Amino acid sequence: MRVALAQTDCRLGDVEGNLADAERIIKDAAAQNADLVVFPELSLTGYALGQLADDISLWPDDPRLATLSKHGPDVVIGLLEDGRIRRHNSALYLSGGTLVHNHRKLYLPNYLIWEERKHANPGQHLRAYDTAHGRFATLICNDAWQPMLPWLAAQDGAELLIVPANSAAKLTGGSFDPAEYWHDLLTFTARMQQCWVVFVNRVGDEAGVRFWGGSRVLDPWGSVVATAPTWEESLTVIDIDLTAVRRRRREIPLLADARMGLLRRELERLMLESGDD
């Protein structure tokens, strides 16, 4: 399977322009025989939604979105989804003009400069999904920082985790380095869930924030097998072997003994003690 990492710099609020750029990039990836093109989080709308006066959310069945996947490769694209009453930070998996899966971001950060809960509602489901190439799952940016979500996706059969992101460069004078954290997190995720991980981050400057890029692919052993440059737009294409997931999971069966009953009992106890229902 050939995957293309579309590390882009979108324009805030310019949906039409971002759609045109995405279509151009997809055609470029198709010329390189890509099977799947992955774009960053909110790649059609931009991130600083609070600075926009207009509602730029899109319906998942917007025909312009379906068109993106009619050039050959499947497409994962990020947008602000119009969910009628609610809006969602969503990533759509499109194939042959059809919506295969819609992942709505589950954990919306609301600290430092991030104010996602002001503009979107969290999703309510995590599902792996079948494609023509294999069984995948999508985790949007901060979703991947929640340890249980990659595990749940792997338990649901995901062989490849797709992680679109809007990760900014160092924000404070402290020791927190997002690029370093992402490296360690993605390595741990690939090794523990024994699956491929495709991380696609954006680049560019928006609302005083600079996004660093550094998109990458990790194999089921946790090794980085492809890396995009930092700070600049790029299209990185790599071949991956999904059968390596079964091989790795057979070598060391970390996921086989899930003990779902134990987890259910302990989660129910914690929910009861915390009052979180």
TrEMBL record:
Signal among keywords: no
GO molecular function: N-carbamoylputrescine amidase activity
InterPro entries named among the record's database cross-references: Aliph_Amidase/BUP, C-N_Hydrolase, C-N_Hydrolase_sf
Native species: Saccharomonospora glauca K62
Origin superkingdom: Bacteria
Membrane-spanning residues: none
One of the protein's GO biological processes: putrescine biosynthetic process from arginine
CN hydrolase domain boundaries: 1-242
Protein known as: Putative amidohydrolase
Keywords: Hydrolase
